[in-house]
Amino acid sequence: MKTSHGAGPESQGQRYAQGPAVPPGPPSTPPAGPSPYGPGNAQPPYGPGPAQTPQPRPQPGPGESQIGNVTIFRTAQFFVHAVSGRRRTTSLQNASGNTSLLEQVRWISTERQRVLDSETRLLPQVELFNQLRREILIPWWFEGFVVLLGLLLTLAVHGLNVFAYPLYQQDEGLLMSNAWAVQNGMLQPYPYTYNQTPFGWILTAGWSTLTGGFATFGNALNSGRALMLLFTFGSSLLIYLITARLSRSRSAGLLALILFSLTPLGITYQREVLLDNIGLFFLLLSLALVVGSESRLSSIVFAAVALGVAVMCKDLFFIFFPVVLYGVWLHTTAFQRKFALVVFSYIALSITSLFVLLALLKGEIFPTGFLPWDHHQHPSLWEGLVSQYQNALSMSDFTATWQTWMRNEMPLFVISGVALAINILGGLRNRLLWLPAFLLLTPWLFMVTTGIAFPIYFVILLPLMALNIALAGNWLLRSTTQRLGFDLMRVLVIFVIIGILIPYSVQHAQIVTNQTATNAQVSTLSWVRANVPEDATMIVNSDLYADLHDPGGSPARSFAHSQLYWNAIYDPDVRYTILHDDWRSIDYLVVDSSMMQEIRTHPSTMLLLDRALHHATLVQQFQANNGDPLGTIQIYQVSHTE
Fold it and tell me: Cys-Cys link to 304, which of 327, 347, 577, 623 (CB 3.0-4.6 A)?
């Protein structure tokens, strides 16, 4: 019996099943007529017998066939063929050397079952001697060395001048203020209004505790920016791993790492203490676990946890849940796909629902008066979400955001748009290309449908654009080099692109590494600590709040009566209980450009601060070294006499 992986000649087949075709019968006298052992072999091999004259083998009649030509089992790439044995098989053959049709059917059925039950061995792997295209084997230590160089370059560019540029932003101050509140047993300095999920500033508070407090790096915002360096470092490594896994190319992964890490506008936003930077790390971690899971349930579980944490850092990341779920579908085997999808969804949604559970336990799901028995004033989850959406819609300007992006990174957006189209079309042949394409489409669909777009959303778009560009470029180059049979050319082209990108990006990032924008804010904090009484009531912006309330720094003083100007206007407890809606309750106004613009633009809304400003005297002013008008800070002392 012979088996083969193809339908070639029997002489080229490979033996898969060992043993005789049919179990041997008991020795007996050879039958008369043609020898069943073939021409020239008149005697059986197991002993002497009477000599017989060879006779020609009769041809099979209707309904009969020669046993040596019977195919027992056949599939598309495999068959088992029966050949004449060297042993006598009296149980199969009759005296004429042929079998009846019923006997053949019974024998073939028995042999088919035996072949299915028997063990087989695989063919040895054969390499063609004329194979032109060969895989490029890179040692793991060399790969690690190159990736480490890329990560160290990222850390150097992002860390250089990180505490001096860009200007401390209001969102940074709010996050660090919330982190200070967590260290003091609260979720926010003022009653928690459910306007954001809290895990991002909880992590930041933990970082400040581990590093010795807010003053370890000079002030609270510097401490937060040091943490952002670590998140950027981790996100760079994750974008490399995701790209290398999806493209099966380490060079493509390195290209994505460089695009993500050294884009000038990206460097600016990635330095800032933003919930987007924290949530992005956990989103990329979830994707890396999914694409590298190889259908392991443990990886799917941790990926669900990472996505849930990303949403708990910033609720915007919930829009990626369907796409990551599609990634789970792609990277799990068919027999466990349904279970993996259920497990992933359950864990991710359970972690996300902790935000709702917090409001439920505190009785703050619905606003005051919505339920018949609820009469005390309190914030609510519903009001927080609605207020957040309305504020975002009123403050967002899609046109201005788009102009900012085009002015700084127009080539990147154009190339990523082309790459997105390539990946969508390429996904018709390779569905893995649809995963990065859908990831990039998701935030664009959100911005277009809601009309909410802020320049800091570039933080979320950048890694997804880098991923699409690297995968599309690698797919096109690989399709070309496969025809040429020389894959090394693809790697060389990618490294040439990387070699061009690095000096270009570093040159255009000089403004980030050379300018000093925060000196006015640092000088203001030092002056206040040295000249303002600790019991004074100050109205400040968020970038000073955490440092003024924290006793760290030099000199070590805290100002418990300093209030955020936004809360002084819109928080009833602050305006009517603490300040009594009287400008005379204010001692100092620390006014920056954004606060001054609010007072001048909305004088009726900002009436309390406008009156205090009209009865105040300018005592100190600081200007940013780079000449940015937004870096001007003025300190006013309010006179309580008419």
Answer: 347
CA dihedral over 408, 410, 416, 417, signed as positive or negative: positive
Dihedrals φ, ψ of 406, to 5°? -70, -35
Rounded to an integer, what distance in angstroms lies between the CA atom of residue 441 and that of residue 446?
9
| DSSP tag of 14 | B
Q: Into how many domains does the chain fold?
A: 3
pLDDT in tens, 485-508: 566 788 888 888 888 888 888 887
Cβ–Cβ < 8 Å for 462, 256: no
The answer on 440 and 507 residing in a single domain is yes
Q: Which two tokens stand for residue 148?
A: 């480490």
Three-state SS annotation for 523-591 = HHHHHHHHHCCCCCCEEECHHHHHHHHCCCCCCCCCCCCCEEHHHHHHCHHHHHHHCCCCHHHCCEEEE
pLDDT at 334 over 70: yes
Domain that holds residue 244: 166-514
Tens of pLDDT along 620-642?
999 998 878 888 999 999 998 76
Q: How far apart are CA 573 and CA 568, in angstroms?
A: 9
**Scanning the structure block, which residue is given the tokens 């490979």?**
14
Sheet holding 563-564, edge to edge: 563-564, 538-540, 588-592, 633-638, 616-622
* Cα angle 321-427-331, degrees, rounded to a multiple of 5: 50
- What tokens were used for 88? 């006598």
Q: What is the mean pLDDT of residues 165-175?
A: 94
381 & 254 share domain: yes
Please report the sign of the dihedral spanned by the C-alpha atoms of residue 607, residue 396, residue 394, residue 169: negative
Q: Residue 292: its pLDDT value, please?
A: 92
Local confidence band at 291 (pLDDT 50, 70, 90 cut-offs): very high
Percent of the chain with pLDDT strictly greater than 90? 55
Q: Which residue has the higher pLDDT, 133 or 486?
A: 486
The residues, any chain, with a CB within 8 Å of residue 201's CB and separated by 6 or more, are 175, 176, 178, 179, 182, 275
What integer best gives the mean pLDDT of the chain? 83
Please check whether residues 312 and 432 belong to one and the same domain.
yes
Find the mean pLDDT for residues 296-311.
96
Give the pTM: 0.78
Phi first, then psi: what are they for 474, rounded to 5°? Answer: -65, -40
Nearest CA-CA partner of 28 in 7, 53, 5, 49: 49
Q: Are 387 and 413 found together in one domain? A: yes
Q: Taking a C-beta distance cutoff of 8 angstroms, is the pair 487, 133 a contact?
A: yes
Nearest Cα residue to 249 out of 491, 513, 498: 491
Residues 526 and 632 in one domain: yes
Same domain, 249 and 374: yes
If asked whether residues 363 and 386 sit together in one domain, one would say yes
Examine residue 65 and state whether it is found in any structural domain, yes or no.
yes
Instruction: For residues 405 and 517, give the distance between their C-alpha atoms in angstroms, rounded to a whole number.
Output: 21
Instruction: Name the DSSP class of 262.
Output: S
Q: What is the pLDDT of residue 92?
A: 47
**Domain-embedded: residue 139:** no
- Examine the domain organization and report whether 504 and 544 are in the same domain: no
Between residues 372 and 45, the one the model is more confident about: 372
Confirm if 528 and 543 have CB atoms less than 8 A apart: no
Q: Which of 594, 523, 611, 529 is CA-nearest to residue 562?
A: 529
Going by C-beta distance under 8 Å and a sequence separation of 6 or more, which residues neighbour residue 115?
Answer: 3, 17, 72, 73, 80
Q: Which of 72, 104, 126 is the last residue of a domain?
A: 126
Do 525 and 622 touch, CB atoms closer than 8 A? no
